[in-house]
Amino acid sequence: MKLVTAVIKPFKLDEVREALGEIGVTGLTVTEVKGFGRQKGHTELYRGAEYVVDFLPKVKIEAVIDDKQVDQAVDAIIKAARTGKIGDGKIFVRDVEQVIRIRTGETGPDAV
Ligand SMILES: Nc1ncnc2c1ncn2[C@@H]1O[C@H](COP(=O)(O)OP(=O)(O)OP(=O)(O)O)[C@@H](O)[C@H]1O
Ligand SMILES: [Mg+2]
């Protein structure tokens, strides 16, 4: 199992959620976050130097996904979240050791 974390533009949340739903992703956690990438959010020129003036609002989506579906999920996120403009976001993929469904005690991929 992998944890797929995507930081995206907030207005793309619905499209990404739908795209993940279509490929059978069963659960998601969504958090409002702020961040910056290579352009360092809004930048401002002051005496010839660029200064960071803000973090930009983004939405972070976290989904634990069976290994077999990870590539499909990443593709779906890219397709739904991409505008082609700067700040479209990033996707991080990490290994997940264990998942436990609290109600039933199921573990591993059955609990996802
Ligand atoms: N290296 C990173 N580590 C953690 N979070 C990051 C990293 N890079 C980007 N992010 C998060 O993703 C958001 C969107 O990043 P963004 O798409 O601007 O990346 P970028 O590398 O600047 O690409 P682009 O040139 O397309 O804008 C940031 O606001 C930040 O929250
Ligand atoms: Mg950027």
TrEMBL record:
Keyword Transcription regulation: yes
Gene3D superfamilies the UniProt entry points to: 3.30.70.120
Entry-linked SMART domains: P-II (SM00938)
Taxonomic superkingdom: Bacteria
Keyword terms of this UniProt record: Nucleotide-binding, Phosphoprotein, Transcription, Transcription regulation
UniProt keyword annotation of Flavoprotein present: no
Record-linked Pfam families: P-II
Family stated for the protein in its record: Belongs to the P(II) protein family.
Subunit structure: Homotrimer.
Protein name, entry field: P-II family nitrogen regulator
